[in-house]
Protein 1
Amino acid sequence: MTDQTLSQRPHLTDKESTGVIDWSSGPRRFVTLYLPLSIFVLVLLFPFYWMAITAIKPNGELLDYKNNNPFWVKSPTLENINKLLFQTDYPQWLWTTMMVAAVATALSLFASVLAAYAIQRLKFKGSQYVGLAIYLAYLVPPSILFIPLATLIFQLGLFDSPLALILTYPTFLIPFCTWLLIGYFKSIPYELEECAMMDGATRLQTLWRITLPLAMPGLISAGIFAFTLSWNEFIYALAFIQSAEKKTVPVAVLTQLVEGDVYHWGSLMAGALLGSIPVAILYSFFVDYYVASLTGAVKE
Amino acid sequence: MAVAAAESRTVHSLQQSWLVRLFDYKPFLIFLCLLPAAGFLLVFLSYPLGLGIWLAFTDTRIGRVGHFIGFENFESLWYDRVFITSVWNTLLYTGVATAGKFALGLWLALLLNNHLPFKSLLRAIILVPWIVPTVLSAIAFWWIYDPQFSIISYVLVDVLGWRDTYIDFLGQAWPARWSLIAANIWRGIPFVAISLLAGLQTISPSLYEAAMLDGANAWQRFRHVTLPMLMPILAVVLTFSVLFTFTDFQLVYAITRGGPVNATHLMATLAFQRGIPGGQLGEGAAIAVAMIPFLVLATLFSYFGLARRKWQQGEDND
């Protein structure tokens, strides 16, 4: 029967029976799909390739395009990376960045879980307005907050201390994580919590024993987002930290590795690359959570 | 003795139940749960926002308490050519970069919505520019735009032979502006593409089939099925994109620092320049406050975009 219908409609191919109709054939598909797609991937990834190849080039090759093909490296060297790791404060910067990002993430997750639980599960009069206020808080950009925050930080005596960053990063992390977790909590059936409470668990026990374990994927992706956002943060770190050894990686690479008019492109690129790697590793482990929650957060 | 033990046990259980009951008392629990988040946001977000608006009306400098001077900061900014240039730059930057990001991002999303091998790997690779710290990729662009060793110039001059001289990307006002916009588009495409892809995947194929049966061609299907179905998500992503492009700081600060001769300052970089290294906190705050009307407009747009889909806290949506 099916064979018969198929043979009656010979112009239909396998692909069309899968639901997405696609009548373009080989060469046309190549021009309209694969060609632009490969150009996109090429352009999006080229700067990273360029960063990597510059980081391992010796200075002679780096500044001589006439005799060397700039797209390739003849005698790769680790000198730039060596210089970066052992003649600058780079390890210290990495450590500071990691510490600040980890503590700010932990603080924000703690506050966000509780807030999201209160808004989504302990529904109260006006809970949707609290939710809306948190959404609006995410829309307040750091670019208009850093000047007053700088005076506040100065008054609190936190200027030039990592604590200044740990306390200010949650201003953009908490709204984001709360927003993400509200959506995630909503996807967990409330009946499970009701059962636990009928069996005599208090609300906090329910949160700790039932809701949080179920919300683990949401927590992980909120954590990754928060860590990435704090790792990438620039303007607060630039404005609140002055001493060279306390800077975070993005700020330090830009301000400490450039000496006067001489740009050491090799070590600059090595610094940029090494600073990207921790986030890239984290991201590659959890890429599925990441994409799912990114798309989920936008859909909500 | 046995009586004493029993008594202490009841006292203990009474105390415990009193505590347990307090923690199960809903208003108290709500208060407790909202306290950390609300505390942080009030102290480090709401208060600075108000303080910033106050500072904009004072002549505060670093290390000196300011006095209220009314609209003087704004008046002097009105006649400040650098500030006016920065406003135009910000509008140009936001307009062109957002248009570019959305055109290319939508195109990429449509491409990714096809049957492709290694789809999830491809999606992961495409997100990379968005993951990597902006400043660090901006440094890569700085090197790509180098006047002497630019790889783009090398390809155009020495490989393809389309030009005779190397391009001075960052040394002149207009080339520098376009270079910054290009870098911003590069960084923004992944986010737009992946978010719109999520929207595209929720569109039921049967709608396309119905349109095809009615004789719609590819453009008509895009115009009358894809675009309207994508509108809500497009509105949200657009707002975020406009908001973050408008207040962008990192890319410009890293690549040109507002140069050559203040020609590429955005409002955010100018506010920083005047406020922190320049020490004129009041004037810097005034520049930052001048961004607020634009941001409010963008936020209202987002609110009405979201309202059409009902706010996510609504009782019976989905």
Note: Chain A touches chain B through 105 residues (CB under 8 Å).
Protein 2
Amino acid sequence: MSDINAGGWRPSMGEAGDAKFTTSSGDYGLMLEEALSFELGSPDKCGVDLDPADRAPVAGLGKFLRKAAPGLPGLTEPETVRHYTRLSRQNYAIDLGPFPLGSCTMKHNPRLNEKMARLPGFADVHPMQPQKTIEGALEVIEQLADWLITLTGMASVAMSPKAGAHGELCGLLCIRAALDARGEKRDVVLVPESAHGTNPATAAFAGFKVESIPATPEGRVDVAALKAKLGPNVAGVMITNPNTCGLFEPDMKEIGDAVHAAGGYVYCDGANFNAIVGKVRPGDLGVDAMHINLHKTFSTPHGGGGPGAGPVVLSEALAPFAPLPFVTRGADGSIHLVEEENASEGHAQAFGRMVAFHGQMGMFTRALTYILSHGADGLRQVAEDAVLNANYVLRSCEDLLPAPFADSGPCMHEALFSDAGLAEGFTTLDIAKGLIDEGFHPMTVYFPLVVKGAMLVEPTETESKAGLDRFIGSLRSLAQRAKAGDQSLHSAPHFAPRRRLDETLAARKPVLVWKGEPGVPGTPSLSEIGGS
Amino acid sequence: MRYLPLTPADRIAMLAKIGADTVDDLFIDVPEAARLAGPIEGLPAHASEMAVERHMSALAAKNVSAGSAPFFLGAGAYRHHVPASVDHLIQRGEFLTAYTPYQPEIAQGTLQVLFEFQTQVARLFGTDIANASMYDGSTACWEAILMAARVTRRGRSVLSGGLHPHYGEVVRTMAKFTQDDIISLPAKMVAEADDAAVIAAIDDKTSCVVVQYPDVMGRIPDLAAIAEAAHAKGALLVVVVTEPVALGLIEAPGVLGADIVVGEGQSIGVGLQFGGPYLGLFGCREKFVRQMPGRLCGETVDVEGKRGFVLTLSTREQHIRREKATSNICTNSGLCALAFSIHLTLLGGEGLARLAGINHARAQATFERLTRISGVSLMNDAYFNEATLILPRDAREVVRELADRKVLGGVSLGRLFPQGEGLRNGLLVAATETTTDEDIEAFALELEAVLEGASA
């Protein structure tokens, strides 16, 4: 923080080793604070050497010219590298330890993926170059598409959606288009209450009404309740399988048959495909559309919240409606790009376009690299090890933390616990924040909503047994402390770059941009908050 | 398998702890008929790093990279020089391999970057606030239209004919399903943007007008005039910026009266990447904040009073509001936002202005040379780093023939607007700081040869 060292050493700092000891810089050894770039830089600084333009703007531009350069601070290269490197050290990351966020899935990101995506033939190619100059790019898309189709046992895949929720939207729009083609107006989509929030949001975004389906006490979709809701107004169902309780839906085929018999379609949220890749093909279970989060199953990096990529595999029934653009392979083996210009030749039913250009190409190269590295045998091993790791966590902790569905059998890729049985006033949040002090990223908390105080632990296949044992040791220790009523947990984390942050304050009077003058330290925006 | 840490002995010990005999016992919930007995047939087995690298490199080698030929494509994706430190920094594992910052105490790096990013975007656009990014420019454009409808409680939007046709297609595709009323003005190959047509289309049912700045043909609309006309009828002005480097030279849309500004951030820090992942930018007036889509990062304090950052106002978002959310968006483009932010930090305001000036000057040099070719003329009165050339024949064929001659010579309007009338001879040409005099001369000579009908 910029103002911390303003006063220099003060007698109140205390002696080294005592709890109140502070340093004059505000930094503590390798625990480094960092000001905002706006406080460090100034608009006249530049980390890029640029000669002035060699001519004046054309006359026509005169009235459009901006009056002053944008008020953006610049930094030289050494300052820039230091700013971002110091900031990076305030982040937890999969490179530092497990990231056991259930249903979010963060596995190791192989560095070969990064190297391949940066080959100039992929990284430095424009999306609208003439086709003969991008044949390798189209081939990457086609090869990845072929793998996804084969691994899922589906008929086709729409590659362009930008992320999982965008893929959900693509699948539901295919369903809308198919219903339109049948001349039917069905406006209801059934969504289980354990679903990701994106499912109902997407259905609403696509213009459907959402009706909720309850879960059984075993954590599965209530098939009877679902069947009771089927009818001529139901466009389809959205089922997550494996579901967000970490369980496989054993009645998936029966559900699919019933939905199809009633004239609807089955959307499968494929967020958890990593649990079954190479072991089960969703196409064998009556699925009509399923998105695949490439970062979850196929290891593309998530970079602090994106980019994602959400290709959608489709059944024969929905394939004709896939959005533009896409890549097809002709009978002679040649690859063709289908877009607005040529879609009328055999693809007139495409429902339209969801994105500019071709989708997340940089994620396709990474995912294909990952898939080729594993091969059919390795991908199967991925699912087996992911499920094995999750069950190991489940059985290693269930004596201390209640596991609501553990009695009904093994889990899939994630282990679900609840905070029932902790001492009075202790909750999932205390366990989660305690894990931070233990050096781990917490699990997914308070999701799925069907379990009170849910803790959803997904270790993934890229954790070693020794690493899991350390994590389990910490989780058990925290459970014991929370059962014993260890008050220090309420104020955890104690050892993170920040203690618990005031989220209510942030939401009550949002400060979303820095409002000071570049290069002038201080935090005027904070004093505004204080005045509210 | 180099990515799987469990040893056979580990697996046996873990199965014993679980109380299962084999790993297949853990898949008992899967109906027997759906369980695959072994690896899917017909697919290759695992491969070494060296073998995969060879395979992928061979595919990459089949593409002509932009840096290997005279290159003049734009149309919503621009080739700029990205300083080496940008790519180095985004590959730091703490950024690259972090997930969404759900636990702010151990995600301050990502969160502070997002706060800085939001501030940069807002200052670049001249808007009060900005969000933590969207998928790309086209999806941000559709989200802006939805947001305008929420703000104005009206359902009719007017799209300028100068809007990138892919963006227009995304909007029309989505609107088909949501029943929003979209009026799409035609693209015309004339010197000035269609401001008058946009203004004439605004009525008291109009929720917003969507205007690209500079537009897809490189022209520059008069935003202040359109804003005034829109506001007079209670409609919002949504401005789309697909080349943010332009804002180093021309006035910020927010300053000219835009209510929502969205854009594609690819041209700063991200690179071409055959179209994705890119970076949706989204800024607007502060009073609309609770109608905004996407993640927002906000400033707060921790229990010790230290400044810190959190994701905030999540009551707008799908994980809380479910079917009542402002959008179904869940992911942003965090890593691309980081690249954008680092590149813009390296540039600074004056650096960006200088870069923009260089881009404009390179475009001038390009058009001065190309319009010396017989039969080639410049359509635009004004442009930034991209403009439309009018050729004596169908530009789609010309682009293909130029590619045969190892020149990547722009994007034809015929490909962008396959249904458009009177656009066939238009060629959209962009130049940036990466365009050399040698590139321009090579382009000019080959274009001349193609137009003279010489064989390659």
Note: The two ends of chain A are 23 Å apart (CA to CA).
